[in-house]
Amino acid sequence: MRTPMDEFAQKAVKFIEEYGDNYPSDEEALQAFVAQWNQALATGESFLEETVEDRAWELLEEAMMEEEGSKKRLKLARQALELDPDNLDAKQILLEELTPVEELRELKKLERQTLEGLEAPELGWPYLENRPYLSLKYNLIIGYMKQSMYRQAERELKEILLLDENDHQGMRYELMAVYTRLEDYESAKSFFEKDEVAHHEDDQMVLPMLVVALQTGHMMEADFYFKMLYALNPEFEHLLDLLKKKDPAVLHNQIKMSEVGFYQPNSMQSLLLALSRLGDFVETTYFITWLLETHSAMPKKTKENGERQDSKIISLARMLDQHLSPGEALRGLSASAERILRQKGLVDFKDFKKKTEEEVAAISGIGKKSMETLKKNGVIFKKKRKK
Description:
The protein has 387 residues and is mainly alpha-helical. 64% of the residues lie in helices and 0% in strands.
């Protein structure tokens, strides 16, 4: 559906196209538009002539208030499509009267047809005209996930992340959810390590790593991600208190409530949103008991410090995992990259002289940024033998 921000941007572009020549620059035309837009909001009067597309969106907004698949909702969608034959949202609503098999088939067909009509250089979220397509692709992904077709969803998610590199729709979270449902630890870890800063400082990325590690028996890693999450989000402590009530319904209800509205990163709601994506495992007795037992086993001093150091996430996670400060060779690495290298026995400068640069770069979880950091620290690798 078109958001208020989309509507604002679309009408701003239209205003500049129609009236831009009346102003010294596009910037001044935009300022004039904003002033008139704000005045219109205050008075309830429109300063732009309503188009058939606007009327179609009004019908669709009304349709979205109706029960999915209901006669009234379908009727409103048909009326909107008559006004705006290219409206993708109206077309998708009309698919609700089909069987799940037919709906997914037609949704995929619509996605392919829409993609063929777009020009390659214009694919991406910054282009307003292409946002309906990206929303359509997202709905296709959700359709696959509802039917437990996770490999299909994975393929679509990877495609959409290539189209929208800045991930305006939060598809990275959905991809991590897919990997937890598939219990695919290696794929989850590989994706998690792609951005050693942003992903490691986002509870909605760390929590799925904790879950998939636990699901697949990577217990040491699960313990590490628990400590990272504890350091990252002060509200994790409150979530654990909630779990101590030992009433699965309490957690279930909290998760469902979190699915509505906005959220702050690394908050209680972001934790609950992450849990809502991860399937039935997060509501099992095993998962809840493991969290509480792991929390109980933490030293009291660590608990007291961990709650208040969210601004020093990486260094605290490192401290919790290794209980020692990094050597000069590893300084500046992400907590995860440092842990991986320590496990491989690569800690001091002398350790790296035993490995070629290619051998270190080939270690799973060590990316380009980690290699650049090692070189900046003065690490010298073993020279390759000349053939």
